[in-house]
Design goal:
single chain, 276 residues, alpha/beta, Rossmann fold, 8 strands, 30% helix, globular
């Protein structure tokens, strides 16, 4: 797992130094990797969202987690895998001056870039913290809303990550996460290729397993709000799939999907965390 984390850290360090336009030609942003893919097949359009800061948009998301997050003025929001700060700045427009937004990222270059973007925007209630999603440097039960955009799929230990999300949320708090999941069984080569871990696909779990992990962490009212089938070109798929497997992919028997899912931490959660 540590080897996978190091690969991701190095790759996203490269991505942080590029623009959205430079990142677009490949599935993982860095042009040395799987360059036949247009990353825009994953990403969503932020142009009409209040708070959108183009300099913070590296085109790395697979949804709009703030869309269904129910963020209210005065809320405290935590963005996991905050990158250059894009979703944090959209969340900041929703929480207003009385709220607080923090982003967690474990890549040095991303933290530096997001902090510089916050300084340019003059925000005093948006912070960026270096840390690991499966060991979030935040106290028990202090966050109203957790968001994340196409990042949890990169985390090798997903049960631990969702347990951490449960821990930091207040009782009655909730999350909204956009992520990549699978339908059916992708070929082993596609799932396990280390480079693809930095490209949104190989770290993804089957949809039912992913949702099961969320429920096992203690969340209730787990609901997929949005789902989109991801189309990848034959040139990429043929590197990993046989002709028969490619037919199954085209028929939808196996596939890659982006989903936006929400869940609540119940009141009286019994977690022993003294959260309020």
């Amino acid at each position: 797992m540590e080897d996978i984390k190091q690969i991701i850290k190095e790759k996203y360090g490269e991505i942080a130094k590029q623009t959205k336009e430079q990142n677009a030609p490949s599935c993982c942003g860095a042009t040395s990797c799987c360059s036949v893919v247009d990353y825009s097949v994953f990403s969503e359009n932020y142009d009409d969202l209040e708070g959108y800061a183009p300099d913070a948009d590296l085109g790395l998301g697979c949804g709009l987690p703030t869309e269904y997050a129910g963020i209210q003025p005065g809320n405290s929001v935590l963005d996991l895998g905050s990158g250059a700060g894009n979703d944090c700045f959209v969340a900041r427009a929703l929480v207003g001056e009385s709220g607080y937004v923090a982003g967690i990222d474990f890549t040095d270059a991303m933290i530096e870039k997001s902090r510089e973007n916050a300084r340019k925007l003059g925000f005093t209630n948006v912070d960026f913290i270096q840390g690991d999603i499966d060991n979030i440097p935040v106290r028990f039960g202090v966050v109203d809303v957790v968001i994340s955009n196409c990042v949890l799929n990169l985390v090798p230990d997903k049960p631990k990550a969702f347990n951490e999300i449960f821990r930091v949320l207040k009782q009655g708090g909730h999350f909204c996460i956009s992520d990549i999941v699978l339908q059916g069984e992708l070929p082993k080569g596609l799932r396990e290729d280390a480079i693809m871990y930095a490209g949104c696909v190989a770290g993804a779990l089957p949809r039912d397993e992913y949702l099961g992990i969320i429920e096992e962490a203690g969340f209730v009212n787990v609901d997929v709000k949005k789902e989109k089938n991801i189309t990848l070109p034959d040139e990429l798929l043929s590197q990993y799939m046989s002709a028969d497997e490619l037919v199954k992919f085209k028929n939808g028997e196996i596939g890659i999907f982006s989903i936006t899912v929400t869940g609540d931490k119940p009141e009286g959660c019994g977690c022993g965390c003294s959260c309020s």
